[in-house]
UniProtKB/TrEMBL annotation:
It comes from the Bacteria. InterPro entries: CTDL_fold (IPR016187), Sulfatase_Mod_Factor_Kinase (IPR051043), SUMF_dom (IPR005532), SUMF_sf (IPR042095). Residues 359-581 form the Sulfatase-modifying factor enzyme-like domain. Pfam families: FGE-sulfatase. This is SUMF1/EgtB/PvdO family nonheme iron enzyme. One of its GO terms (molecular function) is formylglycine-generating oxidase activity.
Length: 585
């Protein structure tokens, strides 16, 4: 029984394995079917894409073909229209080429010579074509790129003055010389129409040469040879034709030389007239060349004289400009020296700002002692950019005494570049006298009007920076702002004189840091104050002197441009300093 059971179990296991294999086979078949379906779908998509691309290419090629046909047809239509309707001897394409070229070079248009009936047969059959061909060859070899020469366009048509007038309306600013030649039974007429240049104005827009070719050329030749056969006569006519061509070359050379001299950039241009062989015989060469050469010589002399005069004018202007620049440099150097005065026997420099002369409104309605607001005229002066530093104070204190002794180190807050403080009005006066002796220039304290004018720097607000200030601009007690500003830092010390913000005239710390002594006696208001900016020394309270600007320990409102302070001239405090003023040199 056990063996049977084992066999039965083995059979079940085998059947289960067969079922798994069959399921796996079914799964593989399903995957294969899916993959085949996907491949078939991709194949269909690729075929559709290929078909679409092919159709697009065919459509694009067809459109390009239609477009090319349309453009060709348009060109043909335009060409026919130009030929019939365009009011000029040039086609639209030729005009486009002319416009595309530089207009600095003149345009020389040589039309076909007109031969009237009754003229010798040689002239009617040979001269016109030969003249046009020879002129083209001559122009290309003589003028090269300096002249844009046109002639071959006109073989089969006559060109008249009306064509020149039409062309001038199309090319009004292009320098043009247009030639019209006419030969009759007895005479020859060379006519030239000019526009777009100075020589056109000089020649009144045309130049003409007319003479009898029979009298000028034919008769002398006949007289020289005696009897003339038909063969000799043809040779004579051919010789005359060559001379007429040479004359046209001569006139063309003259006009182009004249253009180069008058309209060109080089007044020392060497005319080609004397250097080019136009083919005239010696017998008549001087007769025709000499008048043209004299004209060119006279015109060129005038051009050179004008050039030299202009050159002298430019040289004079350049010299004056250079002298002006040198004077500016000297003035700037003098100004620089005037605003940067070295202190003898030290490495220190008194840096000043130049304050211009002007009027301003002094005072404010904030406090009664700042009233009334009144106009003051300030003369120009120089004022120190910074309050006097402790380093400068020590240097001047070591100089010879004038009246009073000076403490070499009076300040509470120590630092070479900190403002000197704890100095009195009398100390400041002694300092100014010693410094005046040292630099040989008058040094003094600013008047109260000068101080406020310099502090405002052209403003009429409470401060040079606006109606409020911040501790980043001014050193004051930031716990007490002004005008609605937020509270800020209170440093409880002075700061370097060249730190924080400067006003628009380059002056540092006119607001805050230390109060600054002024020259004036104290008055309770401005009634009767001088209007010329001078120190107000009469009347008032003679026991007090004016202080301006506020300090590191005062409220923001005390630092206003118009705010006034006072103390006795002997008072010393760690909030009192000063800056100096010098007259403008």
């Amino acid at each position: 029984m056990k063996a049977f059971a084992d066999a039965q179990n083995s059979l079940v296991a085998v059947q289960a394995e067969q079922n798994k294999l069959q399921k796996a086979r079914l799964v593989l078949n399903a995957i294969e079917l899916v993959q085949k379906a996907e491949l078939a779908q991709k194949e269909r998509e690729l075929k559709e894409k290929l078909c679409e691309i092919t159709c697009n290419l065919q459509r694009e090629l067809q459109q390009n073909e239609f477009q090319n046909r349309g453009e060709l047809q348009a060109v043909q239509i335009q060409s026919k229209w130009d030929e019939k309707e365009l009011p000029t001897i040039f086609s639209r394409r030729e005009l486009t080429d002319i416009f595309a070229q530089k207009s600095d070079f003149p345009l020389f248009i040589c039309s076909k010579i007109q031969i009237t009936e009754g003229s010798p047969k040689y002239f009617q059959t040979e001269l016109a074509a030969e003249l046009e061909s020879k002129m083209l060859t001559f122009a290309n070899s003589t003028f090269r790129r300096d002249v844009r020469f046109y002639s071959r366009f006109f073989k089969d048509r006559d060109v008249f003055d009306v064509n020149a007038a039409q062309l001038e309306t199309i090319l009004p600013n292009t320098p043009c010389v247009m030639s019209f030649s006419k030969l009759t039974r007895s005479n020859v007429h060379f006519h030239y129409k000019l526009w777009g240049s100075q020589i056109a104005e000089i020649l009144h827009e045309h130049y003409d040469l007319e003479f009898s070719w029979r009298e000028e050329f034919l008769q002398p030749l006949l007289d020289s040879v005696g009897e003339v056969s038909d063969h000799n006569l043809d040779n004579i006519y051919e010789m005359i034709g060559d001379w007429l061509t040479s004359l046209q070359k001569l006139i063309a050379t003259f006009l182009m030389d004249l253009y180069a001299i008058v309209d060109g950039n080089n007044p020392f241009y060497m005319p080609k007239l004397d250097r080019v062989n136009v083919g005239l015989p010696e017998a008549v060469r001087e007769k025709y060349i000499q008048p043209y050469a004299e004209i060119l010589e006279r015109v060129q002399k005038e051009r050179i004289d004008a050039f030299n005069e202009e050159l002298r004018r430019q040289q004079d202007a350049a010299y004056r400009q250079r002298q002006t620049e040198l004077q500016k440099q000297r003035d700037e150097e003098a100004r620089r020296k005037a605003l940067n005065i070295p202190i003898p026997n030290t490495n220190l420099t008194l840096e000043l700002a130049a304050i211009k002369e002007d009027d301003f409104q002094m005072g404010s309605n904030q406090n009664s002692n700042e009233q009334p607001i009144h106009p003051v005229h300030i003369k120009a002066f120089r004022i120190a950019k910074y309050t006097v530093t402790q380093e400068l104070w020590k240097a001047v204190a070591a100089m010879p005494k004038v009246k009073d002794d000076l403490n070499a180190d009076p300040s509470r807050f120590k630092g070479a570049n900190l403002p000197v403080e704890n100095v009195s009005w009398h100390d400041a006066q002694e300092f100014c006298k010693r410094l005046s002796n040292a630099i040989k220039q008058p040094v003094r304290l600013p008047t109260e009007a000068e101080w406020e004018y310099a502090c405002r720097a052209g403003t009429n607000t409470h401060f040079a920076f606006g109606d409020t200030i911040t501790p980043s601009q001014v050193n004051y007690d930031g716990n007490y702002p002004f005008g609605g500003a937020a509270k800020g830092q209170y440093r409880v010390t002075t700061v370097a004189v060249d730190s924080l913000a400067k006003n628009d005239w380059g002056l540092y710390q006119m607001h805050g840091n230390v109060w600054e002594w002024c020259e004036d006696v104290w008055h309770d208001n401005y009634n009767g104050a001088p209007s010329d900016g001078s120190a107000w020394m009469s009347g008032g309270d003679q026991s007090y002197r004016v202080l301006r600007g506020g300090s590191w320990s005062h409220y923001a409102g005390h630092c206003r441009s118009a705010c006034r302070g006072r103390n006795i001239p002997s008072s010393r405090c760690n909030i009192y300093g000063f800056r100096v003023v010098l007259p403008l040199l």
